[in-house]
Fold these 2 entries.
Entry 1:
Amino acid sequence: GEDVEQSLFLSVREGDSSVINCTYTDSSSTYLYWYKQEPGAGLQLLTYIFSNMDMKQDQRLTVLLNKKDKHLSLRIADTQTGDSAIYFCAVIPPNRSNDYKLSFGAGTTVTVRA
Amino acid sequence: DAGVTQSPTHLIKTRGQQVTLRCSPKSGHDTVSWYQQALGQGPQFIFQYYEEEERQRGNFPDRFSGHQFPNYSSELNVNALLLGDSALYLCASSTGDHWGYTFGSGTRLTVV
């Protein structure tokens, strides 16, 4: 099965940029996602990238994909206290497979300090 | 437009009991997946239902079973509860393809 790894903790000063990293093992993964989970809540889809893209920008969020190294990153510009949460990287196999499950990393806990 | 609705939000059960969790998918979605999220971990795939059939199953024992109804809503049943079944159970709906999953807020199950 797919293995997805993330660093567990990140502390960042308010106003700085945050970069959360993720590596995965299946090079055929075609859909790659970033989810946010606040305490006691479910998962909120933040952004996604298709494997035929290298970068995607959405307001304060920038996703970079290095397919060769199977590395995905999420950059949050001008990090705010409301960005404190757990961030999950998730990947899914291609449409042609019969595998529909999202494989998640263990999550990166981001703490924003004043 | 309502998103994914799960009930109940919290539940406390005793070891050996059985539990049923419910999920109503987002409007327009016909596929429901269930995930288990233990404390401090990422969600783990339990199974997915499409056209009222279990389409794919993760590495969970037969104590975990499910059902999908004609209106696309779904239930997750867990029999013979163990302490290790304590977790947040998340339901995700989609349109049956590999993309566009929407998650509910989850049901927090505590087994004592």
Entry 2:
Amino acid sequence: GAVVSQHPSRVICKSGTSVKIECRSLDFQATTMFWYRQFPKQSLMLMATSNEGSKATYEQGVEKDKFLINHASLTLSTLTVTSAHPEDSSFYICSASRGASDTQYFGPGTRLTVL
Amino acid sequence: AQRVTQPEKLLSVFKGAPVELKCNYSYSGSPELFWYVQYSRQRLQLLLRHISRESIKGFTADLNKGETSFHLKKPFAQEEDSAMYYCALGNTGKLIFGQGTTLQVKP
């Protein structure tokens, strides 16, 4: 149990377009979901925390108008990268947990390339 | 500031040798510490957490508050242990990750 999926697994888009990444908990209800970003050969950096039905809480330095997060149900959270630029190219990983302090289960990640 | 430091980017050992992956943390409160592992082409998964005080796949980790460390140890490394290992600090549900250490176990 506790499987988290992400879609798409990789996406290539043109500069200036918006891209939506989905994160789903397949077999449990995720009260809290987290979005991370990972640059090549670097660690995971938390971008934001989202609780179902509430506005996401963004980490310092993360633009909330650029990275729109929606957590409308207990099994789905989406991250939309708006007006993407090449510097937004990265590996985006989500995790989901039953509660804010419970074990986080990670998705496989989404590779975003902005041309 | 809250920080997790893994000083080694790469640790290479021979099969059967002991392994110790180092992790040091900086945190003002009572820390919650984890080790996550990522095998090749797989997602990140929880290996163990300090509050469980358990041994998973032969790995153990002891929290040393005096040295602010949470090193991961295994007495006899196996080839299937080759992976990327991340130490993480939990803070009100959020995770702060170290840079990761690649463990390479040679036959």
